[in-house]
Write a structure and sequence with these properties.
The chain is of the alpha+beta class. It has eleven helices and ten strands. Strand 3 and strand 4 form a beta hairpin.
Length: 314
């Protein structure tokens, strides 16, 4: 609807400042000609929009102009009130602020829209944590956050999986919460990396500041880092002969599934993180599968199964 588009255009100028017709058209998914017509309509309604000609020009609102018109549609209200207060927000110390912001938003809504808040919160709840996931200890999260906001260098110590202590001075670029687990994105020696915050055993904000690169985008870096991290994790490929009863449970994980044999069993390839992870999972499947390759895993599974049989034969 045009009324919704006019409100969106006004709020874009109010929140982002000067924008070109091309930028507005892209955001609103309309043509530039439509943007020109909408701006004329807003000006006719008394909205103080100014235009700056030339390549560096654009449209903007006069200084200090602000509208308290939210223009929220029912679907947008529901989307906002789907927000629960996730653990990472509380750990950053912004849980109360988010609650207050949602309360103010609720108070600003008309009565006939306020009921959408209760309907949404009683029908949808988003839980961002994994099953059986204990909350990680992140005692230095506030120190890291302070350095992050003020562009100060950090002196950190972290512990490796083998117990070694690493001592670094880093430039904190961002914090990312993945399934309620915090990661620090930092720069060191002209390379940007990420580290799990729970591995940091000491952190101190230094008085020295750093210059954050103008072209660094946290979301872009994180998505690329996740892809690289997942692709470089250890992988152990196993060829299994699987019974018809077990095969449906493996249909999403199985690779290179072959045609069932005369007994109806199917040979598939499965990828595990390690030898031990593969053996543990295959033992859990019992007699519903048989290891074909690697031979070392086949012998190990048989050995463990034999130990179990001997234990229970007693």
């Amino acid at each position: 609807m045009r009324a919704d588009r006019l409100i969106s255009l006004l709020l874009l100028l109010q929140t982002r400042g000067k924008m070109t017709a091309f930028e507005l058209a892209k955001e609103l998914e309309v043509t530039e000609r439509t943007v020109y017509r909408d701006i004329n309509a807003l000006c006719s309604a008394g909205v103080p929009i100014f235009a700056i000609p030339g390549p560096a020009g654009g449209y903007g609102l006069i200084e200090n102009y602000c509208t308290n018109l939210t223009g929220l549609k029912p679907e947008e209200i529901r989307a906002l009130f789907m927000l629960s207060i996730p653990t990472p927000i509380d750990q950053l110390g912004f849980g109360q602020e988010l609650r207050a912001a949602l309360l103010k938003l609720s108070a600003a809504l008309p009565d006939n829209r306020r009921k959408d808040q209760s309907l949404t919160q009683q029908r949808l709840y988003l839980d961002s944590s994994w099953w059986f996931q204990e909350e990680e200890n992140v005692p230095f999260l506030s120190v890291i956050q302070n350095a992050l906001w003020s562009d100060h260098l950090l002196h950190i110590q972290s512990e490796t999986f083998f117990g070694a202590i690493l001592d670094w001075v880093v430039a904190p670029y961002g914090l990312v919460a993945k399934a309620s687990v915090w990661y620090l994105v930092y720069a060191r020696e002209d390379t940007v990396r990420a580290i799990r915050v729970s591995r940091i055993i000491q952190a101190e904000m230094l008085p020295t500041t750093f210059v954050r690169p103008m072209d660094f985008d946290l979301e872009t870096f994180w998505k690329a880092w996740v892809v690289e991290f997942e692709s470089t994790r250890p992988r152990y490929t196993v060829k299994l002969r699987v019974s018809p009863a077990l095969l449906p449970r493996l249909k999403y994980a199985a690779k290179e599934t072959q045609t069932p044999d005369a007994e109806g069993w199917t040979t598939v390839n499965l990828v595990f993180e390690s030898f031990e992870a593969a053996r543990n999972q295959i033992l859990a499947y019992g007699g519903a599968c048989e290891v074909v390759e690697p031979m070392a895993l086949r012998m190990s599974v048989a050995d463990f199964a034999g130990q179990i049989i001997r234990r229970y034969e007693r």
